[in-house]
Design goal:
The structure holds three protein chains of three kinds. Chain A is α+β, with helices and mostly antiparallel strands. Chain A has eight helices and 19 strands. Chain C has a single domain, classed as MetI-like (MetI-like fold). Classes of the chains: A alpha+beta, B mainly alpha, C mainly alpha. The interface between A and C is medium-sized, with 24 and 17 residues.
């Protein structure tokens, strides 16, 4: 087992700066999630750790050994699971799982034992004689994990391994994955564009955009203390509301941010609670069962047309008629301030 | 940890695997290509290995030669004529063969036949069809009451050119049709359906939606058609041999007659070099298409 | 009404494309006295068998001409050129698609463009080269020169084919313990099989069809290939034996037509790459 150390890593494809100066320290046994939209450089970063892509500059250490220059993928002590699972189509499940062992010339009996052990762990023993095309998506995904496991890698690299599963299956697969990682305790780097996966799986989350790291932190850090407006609006669904109030009590050019679930009717708060109140003119209400999303505008805003969203839990029964203005409020502790020009958080 | 060996070096492996192909292309296409141009400025002959600089002598000689002038004109006429015919026929054929109907597989098989058969064998079959005594075309025209005199297809210079154009169009048509069909298949069905919903009829759809989208692919079909027709030797060589009286030569047959049969390599090469303008036009057009496709794909 | 027009149009194209082949078929099996009736005799219908069909022309073709010899020569050239093309073009296509990086595409384009340089421009210098190498009038000349036509197109074909095959299986094998070279030797071949098959078929058909170089380099009848021998040397003195000629054309066309029909879509992809997004 080992940590991964990345220093000022860059990868340019011509004019495109896919990864543009990333520093990252991945701790031993940690489950780290790289979160970003497509083109954010998260996959390129993962592929550089794997050795499938050569960095333009910068350094990568796995378990303290520098690998970026001339250590080929096979010698880095890693295992990778691709989004498509990349199962060898002409080999049975058994042969697929055995492949990395055969390639490193493990004796035949040991291979047999190891494959059976891993297959047991993922409960796919029944499928060992089948071919990948005879398996369902979820089974294929488990075969791919199994194949990654038998190598005893120092680091697991997972590239959106759940993206090809349907929504229902994805929930159980996520749970399985997390349990399995805790059990074996191997350092894991996981790439996804899905923030729910990121929040649910990661010990820490790395939010990336345009090849740069915007924030590193626990799911709670990233959600509650976003360092800038990008992270604030990228993480969370619906995104954080950002308002320019032109409030003289605040420094000029300040954006006020609050999460939709903190933006509730004034009446739901106790009278003495320290809240900031707004006059919220309701345009439309979406009933979603467990929640209601209320779309509208805030009169105090310098841009009164900007849409503001409130997320009311099902426990609040109060009627919210469309087209009327109501008093809503946010607890002061839930307010976040950002610089309107740089987007950076203001902590004052 | 294992360090990177040669077996891991993508750059080294890449060069090694590409080298034989590149060597073949450079040594046996690139070098001969420049040799062809060089030879056209020499008075080399097949018999001896001597190589003397002749400047523009060969070009002067052929440009003043009425047989060459005629061959150049024939090349242009045959290429333009056959390709014009092909574009119209292929677009129409593609419209027919995109529809589903009974026996379509068999019909497609028949349509493709002309492309599969070797040029020389097709040409000899057409020679028989155009035979001066036994021409089945003449019989059919006569039996239908359309012909009262007699058509000497390959004996009359103008008719022979018509025959050559027909054969070239016949030969290229399947290729062009299949390319246009591939283009039609790549037009997203939604666009066509949107046009239908928007109330466009068949003709409006064809001319204002499909043909503009098909333009790149039709261009590709024409470009290959031009190359295949302008540089083809077999059809004319077998059908007429350049006759009667050297009136139906095209550039390749004349180059063959002078350069190989007449052993005047310099002049043969000079005649063949006149194929270059056709090829350059095609190459430039294809490069521009490729660039546009690259931009469009982003 | 629309259906009728459709069938009529399809029939029209079929007649235009197929009638020479029908004519080959009829000529092959017609007796001479049925065959050689002047077309000015309107009462004698040439489109049908007026006398019972005969195998005389076929017998003549296989028994008394050099045709079987030409078939053998053609097969020799086909096998040799296929081997050379696969050995050269497949690694090159792989290199361009997987190893060359950003300039692979342009390089592939450059190689493909040499496919446009026609035999009729190159036969003059080649005649000199072939003479220098002492290969004149030998199948060796064809085996040496034909790959100049097959390699550029097939390199391009393999490159394009590989672009449609995901990289991940090969990358997975590299992570699982193979070197790049081991991946190329042990994993990639299975993935390229359909591409290789296309290369083989393209080469086969091209060699079967080639006429210009054969005409330039081969002068004696026993060295000829089918596409050269049939139109040039299947003539007795000054007399064309149309029955046997058409039999040869027919028997050569049938296998080619079947193979073409199976592989046409793959070839077309090679020609339209870039112009058709798919």
């Amino acid at each position: 087992m080992a940590g991964v150390e990345i220093r000022n890593l860059k990868k340019y494809f011509g004019d495109l700066h896919a990864v543009d100066g990333v520093d990252l320290s991945i701790r031993e046994g940690e489950f780290l999630v790289l979160l970003g939209s497509s083109g954010s450089g998260k996959t390129t970063l993962l592929r550089m750790i794997a050795g499938l892509e050569h960095p333009t500059s910068g350094e990568i250490y796995i378990g303290g050994v520098r690998v970026d220059g001339d250590v080929p993928p096979r010698a880095r002590g890693i295992a990778m699971v691709f989004q498509s699972y990349a199962l060898y189509p002409h080999r049975t499940v058994f042969k697929n799982i055995a492949f990395p062992l055969e390639a490193s010339r493990v004796p035949r009996q040991q291979i047999e034992a190891k494959v059976r052990w891993a297959a047991e762990m993922f409960s796919i023993s029944r499928y060992l004689d089948r071919y990948p095309r005879q398996l369902s998506g979820g089974e294929r995904q488990r075969v791919a994990l199994c194949r990654a496991l038998v190598r005893d890698p120092k680091v697991f690299l997972l590239d959106e391994p759940l993206a090809n599963l349907d929504a229902k299956l994805r929930n159980t697969a996520r749970d399985d994955l997390k349990r399995f990682q805790r059990q074996i305790g191997t350092t894991t780097v996981y790439v996804t564009h899905d923030q729910i996966e990121a929040m649910g799986l990661g010990d820490r989350i790395v939010v990336m955009e345009h090849g740069k790291v915007r924030q590193v932190g626990t799911p709670q850090d990233v959600y509650e203390d976003p360092v800038d407006t990008f992270v604030a609006t990228f993480v969370g669904q619906p995104p954080m509301n950002l308002l320019d109030l032109g409030d003289p009590s605040l420094p000029p050019r300040t954006l006020l941010g609050f999460r939709p679930e903190h933006f509730l009717p004034r009446s739901t708060f106790a009278a003495g609670e320290d809240v900031r109140a707004f006059r919220f003119s309701v345009r439309r209400v979406e009933y979603l069962g467990s929640d209601r999303y209320v779309y509208g505008a805030v009169a105090e805003s310098a841009t009164p047309d900007a849409t503001v969203i409130a997320k009311l839990p099902g426990t609040i029964a109060q009627a919210i008629p469309e087209g009327e203005t109501q008093e809503f409020a946010v607890p002061r502790a839930a307010l976040r301030y950002f610089d309107a020009d740089t987007g950076l958080r203001r902590r004052s | 940890m294992t360090r990177r060996a040669v077996a891991d070096r993508e750059d080294v492996l890449g060069v090694l695997m590409l080298a034989p192909s590149l060597a073949y292309v450079i040594l046996l296409v690139g070098v001969p290509f420049f040799l062809a141009i060089l030879l056209s400025f020499s008075n080399a002959t097949a018999g001896s290995l001597r190589f003397e600089w002749a400047g523009f002598g060969n070009y002067g000689a052929i440009l003043g030669d009425p047989i060459f002038q005629r061959a150049l004109r024939n090349s242009v006429v045959v290429t333009v004529g056959s390709q014009a015919l092909v574009v119209v026929l292929a677009t129409a054929a593609a419209q027919v063969f995109r529809a589903t109907f009974r026996g379509k597989r068999f019909a497609r098989f028949i349509l493709l036949l002309p492309w599969a058969v070797p040029v020389s064998l097709a040409a000899i079959a057409w020679t028989w069809i155009f035979d001066s005594t036994f021409s089945v075309i003449n019989w059919t025209l006569k039996a239908a009451g359309l012909l009262h005199g007699w058509l000497y297809w390959l004996g009359d210079p103008a008719l022979a050119l018509v025959a050559i154009i027909i054969v070239q169009a016949w030969r290229i048509l399947p290729f062009a049709t299949v390319i246009v069909l591939a283009g039609l298949a790549s037009i997203p069905q939604e666009i066509v359906e949107a046009a239908i919903v928007d109330g466009a009829g068949f003709w409006r759809r064809l001319f204002q939606v499909e043909l503009p989208l098909l333009l790149p692919v039709v261009t590709v079909a024409v470009l290959f058609g031009v190359v295949y027709t302008a540089t083809d030797l077999g059809v004319v060589y077998i059908l007429t041999g350049g006759g009667p009286a050297n009136t139906t030569h095209v550039l390749p047959t004349l180059a063959f007659q002078r350069g190989i049969l007449g052993a005047d390599l310099g002049q043969g090469a000079a005649i063949a070099v006149f194929l270059l303008p056709f090829l350059i036009v095609v190459a430039v057009a294809m490069l521009r298409l490729a660039r546009r496709a690259e931009v469009g794909a982003r | 009404m629309k259906r009728v027009a459709l069938y009529a149009a399809a029939l029209g194209f079929m007649v235009f494309a197929g009638f020479p082949f029908y004519w080959m078929l009829v000529t092959t099996f017609k007796q001479n006295r049925d065959l050689y009736v002047g077309a000015s005799d309107v009462s004698h219908i040439p489109w049908i068998f007026n006398d019972p069909p005969t195998l005389d022309h076929v017998r003549l073709l296989f028994g008394e001409t050099e045709f079987p010899r030409w078939v053998l020569n053609t097969l020799i050239v086909v096998v040799a050129v296929v081997v050379i093309t696969v050995a050269v073009a497949v690694p090159a296509g792989y290199s361009l698609a997987r190893l060359a990086g950003r300039w692979g595409e342009r390089m592939g384009m450059g190689i493909f463009f040499t496919y446009l340089i026609p035999p009729t421009l190159l036969f003059v210098p080649f005649s000199r080269l072939v003479a220098l190498l002492g290969l004149h009038n030998s199948l060796g000349a064809l085996i040496l020169i034909y790959p100049t036509m097959t390699i550029p197109f097939c390199t391009w074909l393999v490159m394009g084919f590989l672009r449609s095959v995901p990289w991940e299986i090969e990358e997975q094998a590299m992570i699982d313990g193979y070197s790049r070279l081991a991946v190329i030797l042990r994993v990639a071949p299975r993935l390229i099989v359909p591409g290789i098959l296309t290369v083989v078929v393209f080469t086969f058909t091209l060699v079967m069809q080639e006429f210009v170089y054969a005409l330039t380099f081969i002068s004696s009848v026993e060295k000829m290939t089918i596409s050269l021998g049939v139109p040039i040397a299947l003539v007795r003195g000054d007399v064309y034996h149309w029955g046997s000629l058409m039999a040869a054309a027919l028997f050569t066309s049938i296998p080619l037509a079947i193979v073409y029909n199976l592989f046409i879509d793959r070839f077309i992809q090679g020609f339209t790459m870039g112009a058709v997004k798919g």
